[in-house]
Design the sequence.
């Protein structure tokens, strides 16, 4: 079983740890994501080195799962929206030089898919679609037991599939993308609109002087606000349509979901499951939705799974 | 180079021929598709046997690409909408028994994708999406240089991705599928509706006493009918949205297209290309659409390509 120095670089935290082949995570080190434009490489190297030496060295590889656009072939981060210093940052070469082991880098949503497949809700399946449902909607595809990257490593952007042409404007420029209809950002817009309509006093009470968002819609709905619940169920319907399209296209065995929106449980996903069932085109029917249970270690486990796949190849 | 006894079973014709590894097609035999419910197996066996003996025997394999739902693992056709006798028909075993070579069977759209990849517009690419744009919309995926089948062999049903939730009813039961918006069947509905509106005398003239369809819309548009042209461009827009979603999801290198709708050329596909370009999510942009040039032999070449992939595995 390989021993991997794994890192998970997100917009809020940078994590590093040691992951063994059976998915045990040890020696976690967590720091806030740097917000400066320059000089982030030494911070990253220091985090990795501290983790490495605390664990007593001896790794088969170092593997980084990072938010943002990753050019895995060239070993660099192209851009990571919430970490300004991760712009056009060559990471693989300096890390390899410092640590003296093979270094891999992968988009975090793709890594998460591989984590679910190897360690999580997707264990035992060959064909898996993973959805990261948080502020944005992303995803990863494990097809035939391997991470599918596409031509340039950008496969899995399932948040930017259009399910409702002419629907709300998406950050990507298109209209009616899945992400524009069901995501943390979409729920902010839904909550704001409902609040401004003045038709939901309960939502107004729940929001108070906070920025309206998914959690307020959900709490208002749980306290009986029909309009807040309708927003969540409507979003769930679109999610189901999107997953149904994926099901008909890729004929997967299972769909796994992680991210903040999982907390909405049946209110969001019951509606999604109904739409998904209605979409089933003949024999593609019957694919289940499973929630991730990997928690905060998902990114580290994903990075480790990416390294294990590379080492086996 | 292997020598394959290839068959292409469609709703109108059954074709058989010998295909050599470099894509040369010889000894074509073509018959009308049988319309009876019983006794089609002897017809199929006879067609294959005649082709085999005319070519002097000595094959590495026999390979069948068939319309309909195919259970490749069990070697049978589950159902083929336009060939009643192809219902729950075990084909692989009896053909193998008769011919004494390995026999493979595959869905014709998947086989067509592999044909484009090996012999056609997709040569030289690793990641290809193929669209069959005829009466219905189907497709096949070649990912990482191999046909992607999914869990049960049903992958590639890209006609049943929803691009406009709440759009026109699709034959599959959902609303706003790609096939419900842009396909031969969709153009029939579009042409019928426009005709009934009475707003397009030119279309009425072109249709005469025929059943209105794609070809009438196209011919009326070419003669200057703006409303007919608008229908085609609107359909092209949806096609582009669907292909854009696929591009963002799968990050392919090329999209190839075959089928009757290719005849609509720039009027349909110019509009599709525009929508596709607008959908490009950052680095997935720049994927081209290429038309198939394999003609009537596409199915035979697809069957041969399927056999070659199996023999190499």
Sequence:
């Amino acid at each position: 079983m390989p021993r991997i120095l794994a890192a998970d670089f997100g917009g809020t935290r940078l994590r590093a740890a040691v992951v063994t082949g059976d998915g045990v995570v040890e020696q976690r080190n967590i720091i806030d994501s740097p917000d400066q434009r320059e000089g982030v490489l030494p911070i990253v190297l220091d985090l990795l080195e501290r983790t490495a030496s605390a664990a007593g060295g001896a790794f088969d590889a170092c593997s980084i799962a990072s938010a943002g656009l990753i050019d895995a072939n060239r070993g660099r981060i192209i851009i990571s929206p919430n970490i300004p210093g991760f712009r056009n940052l060559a990471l693989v070469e300096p890390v390899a030089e410092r640590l003296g082991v093979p270094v891999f880098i992968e988009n975090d949503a793709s890594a998460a898919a591989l984590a679910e497949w190897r360690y999580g809700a997707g264990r035992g399946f060959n064909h898996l679609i993973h959805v990261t449902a948080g502020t944005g909607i992303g995803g990863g595809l494990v097809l035939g037991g391997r991470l599918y990257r596409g031509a340039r490593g950008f496969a899995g952007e399932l948040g930017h599939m259009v399910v409702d042409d002419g629907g709300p404007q998406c950050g990507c420029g298109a209209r009616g993308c899945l992400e524009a209809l069901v995501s943390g950002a979409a729920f902010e817009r839904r909550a704001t609109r409902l609040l401004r309509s003045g038709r939901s006093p309960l939502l107004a009470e729940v929001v108070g002087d906070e920025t309206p968002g998914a959690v307020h819609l959900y709490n208002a709905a749980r306290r009986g606000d029909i309009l807040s619940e309708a927003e969540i169920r409507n979003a769930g319907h679109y999610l189901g349509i999107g997953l149904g399209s994926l099901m008909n296209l890729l004929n997967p065995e299972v769909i796994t979901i992680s991210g903040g929106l999982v907390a909405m449980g049946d209110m969001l996903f019951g509606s999604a499951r109904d739409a998904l069932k209605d979409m089933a085109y003949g024999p593609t029917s019957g694919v289940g939705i499973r929630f991730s249970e990997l928690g905060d270690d998902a990114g580290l486990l994903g990075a480790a799974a990416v390294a294990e796949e590379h080492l086996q190849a």
Remarks:
- Chain B has two domains: 3-114+296-312, 123-292.
- Chain B touches chain A through 49 residues (CB under 8 Å).
- The CA atoms of residues 47 and 138 of chain B lie 27 Å apart.
